[in-house]
Amino acid sequence: MTGKWVYVEGFAIPAKGDLAVLHAWVTNPKNPVVAHDPTWGNGREYFGIPFRLDYVLRMHEKAGHPGVLDAWELGWPLLHGDDRISDVIWKAGARQNP
How many CB atoms lie within 10 A of CB 79? Predict the structure, then answer.
């Protein structure tokens, strides 16, 4: 990602709750272990994959809504191997656009 934030998608547990749910948040590329959650404010636990911005935008355009992990209408391209995690994951210090 070329900006201040990196998009992360995975599972999170809200501050008041015990069930992990599919969720998205952002992280600072200089400190990617800290979740910044504009939806909940603060959750209890976060476990996710940081994605390249170009992939997130491409998936949004194809599906018509945000989200990359549960892209059922596209046949779950990450689950079925149509898109490889190693090709779409954000990597610190790496050039993020092909």
Answer: 12
